[in-house]
Amino acid sequence: MAHLLDHRGNPIQSAARSNVVPITRDGLAGLVNAATGAGTSIDRSVWDNWYFVPMSPQEIISGYRANWLLGKIVDIPAEDMVREWREWQADEGQIEALEEAERNFGIVGKVQEGISYGRLGGGAMLLGYGDANPEHPAPKATKDSLKYAHVFNRWELTVEEEERDVNSPWFGQPRFFRINGTVGQPRIHPSRMVVFKGARVPRFPGVTWEDYFWGDSVLTRVDRAVKNAIKANDGFARLIDEAKIDIYRLSGFMQNLISNEDAVRKRVQYTDAGKSSLRGVYLDKDDEFTQRQLSLTGMPEMIESLLSVVAGAADIPATRLLGRAPQGMNSTGDHDEQNYHTMIRSKQRLYLSPAVDLIDSALIPSALGTRPKEVSYKWAPLSLPSEKEQAETNKIKAETIKIYVDAALLPSSAIEKATQSMLSDDQWLPGLDKALKEAARAGELPGDGNETELGIVPVGAESSGKEGDRTSAGGGRTPETSSARRAANDAAVFFADAAPRPLYVQRKLLNASALIAWAKENGFSSTLAADDMHVTVLYSRSPVDPMKMGESWSGDDQGRIRVKPGGPRAIERFGENAVVLLFASWELESRHRSMVEAGGSHDFDEYHPHVTLSYELPADVDLAAIKPYAGALEFGPEMFEPLDLDWKRKVVEE
C-alpha cells in the first residue's frame, strides 16, 4: 500500500482513519491550510502583486491639462520652491547687477518652468554662450558671456548613450544632448545643460537608461489616488439629481400612454402643479403616489477621506492643495504648514540648489565679470510674520538689547554696531543703510571701527620723562607719569585677576626713526613720535581673558620680529585723517587670527598690518605719487593693554 509522505519523507496517516485534516508546511509558501485555503492558490492574497504601468506622454499632459488636482500637484511645489526666491549675500552694487541679470534672462520663471517639467517627467535648461561649438564643454564664463537660457521638456530632447568612464567628470550623464526638431540637431555637451529630473528611478533590472536619467512623472504615483477621489466626487454629484424621486402609479397608464400621450403628460403636469402651489397631490381613486428618498449620509466624509489620501500621496497639505481651512478640533494648520515648509526647504537644498549653482556658474561672471568668493546666496523664508508678530518680535529684541546695555556686559559701541546691523538685516527701518552712511560722513556716529581711529592704549612706550611730555595716539599717559611706570602699573592691574575685559595688543616699531626720516623726505610736515609708532595685533572690544590668548610663536629670544625689506607695501588713508603704511606679514596675520579664534573680536572682515604715520597730511601732498617705504620694519615684543576709547583728544604730533 502506498503511503503519502511529508516533506521529510515520513508517512502521513490517512485522514479518513484519523479524522484529522492534514496540515503541511512548505518551506517556500509558508503555512498551508487545506480548510481555509490560506497560502494556496484559492487564497486571493497570493495574487496581490505590484505592477508598474508607465504613463505615456499623452496621458501625462492630458491629466495635467484636464484635471485640477493633477495640475496643482505639479505646479504648487514648483511655485513654492521659487516663490520667495533667494537673498544675495554681496555688496549693494553686486546685488543690483545680479538681480538685473536674473530679470533680463527671466531666471526665476524659467527655473519654475524647469521644475514643473521635471515633475511631469523631466526637463532641462540650455545655457547659451553664443559660441558656434555647443558640442564642446562650456567655455569659462566672463563678462556678458551668457546670451540666453532656454527651457525644454524631456520629450523635446534626445539623450545619447551614458558616459560610463569613471574618470570623467560627466560620469553618469549623457555624452551629448540633442534638441528635437532643430536644424541639423547639433550635439550639445552636458556642461551646457541644467537638468531638472522627476521622481527618482533606481538603476534596477528592466529600467531603461532614459527612465533612469530623467526619472518618473510624479503623476504616476498619485494617479490611482486622484482617480478614486474624482470618481467618488463625480458619483456623488450624479446622485444629487436622484436624491428624491416622485413615483406615480396611474390606472391604465400604459394603455393611455399609447392611445393619448398628451393627455397623460397633462395629467402629470397638473399633479405636479398642484403639489407645488396647493402643497397637495390629487389623484384618481385607483392611482398611487409615493416618493423615494435617497440617503447620502457618509458620502461627504468618504470624499474627504479620499482627498486626504491624495494630499498624502502628493506630499502637499490639504490646506494648501485644496485651499481649505484647517479641520479638526483646535486645529490651526500650523503643524501641517511647518512640515510642508520643511519639505520644500529639503527640496531646495537637495534638488534645486545644485541646478541653481550650475546656472550661477554662468550668470554671476556674466553679470560681474568674475565670480567673487564672497558672493553667495541663501533661500528666502517661505513665510513672513504678520505686522503684529513682527512688531512683537522687534519689541522683545529692543528689550533684550536694553538689558545688555544696562548690565554693561558689552561695550556700548559694540552694541550700537550690532544693533544697527540687526535693524539693517531685518529691514525694519527702510533706508537705514543709506542713513547710516550719511551720518558717518557727517561725523554724527562714533568712530567707524578703524583701529587707527579708535582708542589705542600704547602703554609702556618710551618717554622722555620731561615735564609736559606729549601723549601718544590713545596712550593715556600724563605728564606726571612715565610710560615705563604706567606700563608696570597697568600690567599689574590688568593681570591681577585675569577677568575678561576689552583687550589691546600691539608691538612697538623699534626703527621708527628711519620711517620718520622717509616721511619727512616725502612731504610729511609732522608724524607721530617715534615711541608712538606701532602695529596693532588685536583690538578686541569684546571682553576676553588675556591669559587665553597664549603667547606669540614667532620672534627672537627677546620677542622681537622683523619684516624684511620689500614685499607688498602701500600708503593709504584710513578714516578721514589717518595716513598709514600698509605691509604684509604672515607672522602678524597668523597671530591676529589665532587670537580672534581664542575669543577676541575684530571690527572688520579682514585684518591688515599697518603703522600709522600721521593725522596731519599737508594738502599739497599726493599720496598716489609717493613710493611706499620699502625698508625693514623691526617690532618689539607683544604688549597686552586695556583700551582707552578717549584717545583721539590726546594725539600730538611733532
Structure report:
The model is unreliable at about 15-20, about 25-30 and about 445-495 (pLDDT under 50). This protein has about 650 residues and is of the alpha+beta class. The protein has five domains: about 5-45, no CATH class; about 55-220, no CATH class; about 245-295; about 385-440, no CATH class; about 485-650, Cyclic Phosphodiesterase, Chain: A. The termini are far apart. The chain has helices spanning about 15-20, 55-65, 70-80, 90-105, 105-120, 210-215, 220-240, 255-260, 260-275, 300-315, 320, 335-370, 385-405, 410-425, 430-440, 485-495, 510-520, 585-595; strands spanning about 5, 10, 25, 30, 85-90, 125-130, 150-155, 155-160, 175-180, 185-190, 195, 245-250, 290-295, 375-380, 500-510, 535-545, 560-565, 570-575, 580-585, 610-615, 635-640.
Features:
single chain, 18 helices, 5 domains, 3-stranded antiparallel β-sheet, alpha+beta, elongated, Acb1-like_C, 654 residues, 4-stranded antiparallel β-sheet
What's the quick description here?
The chain has 654 residues and is α+β, with helices and mostly antiparallel strands.
The amount of helix comes to 25-40%
User: Roughly what is the average pLDDT, rounded to an integer?
Assistant: 79
Gap between N and C termini = 130 Å
Q: How is the main sheet built?
A: 4 strands, antiparallel
**DSSP strand count:** 21
Can you tell me the overall shape?
A: elongated
User: For this structure, what is the CATH class of the largest domain?
Assistant: Alpha Beta
Radius of gyration, CA atoms, in whole angstroms: 42 Å
Number of domains: 5
Domain Anti-CBASS protein Acb1-like N-terminal: 59-402
Organism: Sphingobium fuliginis ATCC 27551
Pfam family, one: Phage_portal_3
Protein name: Anti-CBASS protein Acb1
